[in-house]
Sequence to fold (350 residues):
Amino acid sequence: MLPHGGLPEIFPPYLSDLIRRTGGPDGPIGRQFVSRPALERRFYKKGMKDPLMEDEHEVAPGLVYKYESNIHTKKKQFTYTGRALWTITRHCAAYCRFCTRGREVGIPAGQEGVSGAALSHTPHLLMDQIKETLAYIRKEPGITEIILSGGDPMTVHPDVLRFVLGELGAMQREGKLDIVRIGTRVPVHNPLLLRDVHFEAVRELRNPRVMVHINHPFELTPQTLGVLDRFRKECGAIVMSQSVLLRGVNDSAETLYTLFTKLAGAGVVPYYIFQNDRVYWASHFTVPMKRAIHIWQKLRPMLSGVAATARFVIDVPRGYGKVPLPEGNGWYVDYARGYRDFKGKHFALV
Ligand code: SF4
Fold:
């Protein structure tokens, strides 16, 4: 038995149907959602629960703020703008077995073995807690960007979503916030859940960024593409994709080529592909680093420039921020001798 009980298995009918049509539990969609208890508990003594140190940086209900906003030098203090991550719920429409926040999302109140910070809201923030966090954001001068992240913000009651986005939109208009991002996987888990009220709520923001988590081309169904289109056309959102490199799901240059090309064709900007975080329940999904780099370096020259906007990044355990991997050996630059294009032709630096 896992100390925290493990992520629940929840399959909206839409997702069950997609799993059935794409190879069942062992297909690339099924593997992301159907539990494998023996594998999920195999590494729990060695692996980590919170490699991104989110619990220790929770500064207000659900708000993780770990980026320093001040640099002190001998001569002066330099203040730069910073982003904070806010989880207003611990629920998602379905649960990804590799979830970085598996210590926290989907966990029922009172569950033993999770950290105190992870239980700061169970399961959704109460209105008093939402107001407390909004007040914190307002008074903290370093925060200029909010990332609403999973648990999935699109699963809260539409009135609550509208209130939160309305307040954040007001802070944008006042000049307090520059950017608000909404991280969601509802367009993949259950696009049928998204109705007019959700798009109206997103319209409260100025230039909303909708960061949709998509891992495999099979996830780009007509229903999913339809809601991504609505975010773009009805909300004026810039829709960007985030993917996780997962063994047995999308760990080939060909699969990622199809994914990024289809995303770009649908007007979605590929943004990040992550090496999966080293949480113990997801170790079996990890693609060894050397192989991950090989896939990335093979992929990059294959892509059109507009599909090659993603960066391959690692959230280094117990580090601050993401480390992007170089684009690879498709191209080569030697500042002394010249450079080489992706077909291997050499040019002198002039
Ligand atoms: S949608 Fe995001 S937060 Fe929810 S289970 Fe999947 S990865 Fe985790």
Remarks:
- The two ends are 63 Å apart (CA to CA).
- Residues 13-67+78-347 form a domain with the TIM Barrel fold (CATH 3.20.20.70).
- Residues 92, 95-96, 99, 101, 105, 150-152, 185, 213 surround iron/sulfur cluster (CB under 6 Å).
- The chain has a mean pLDDT of 86.
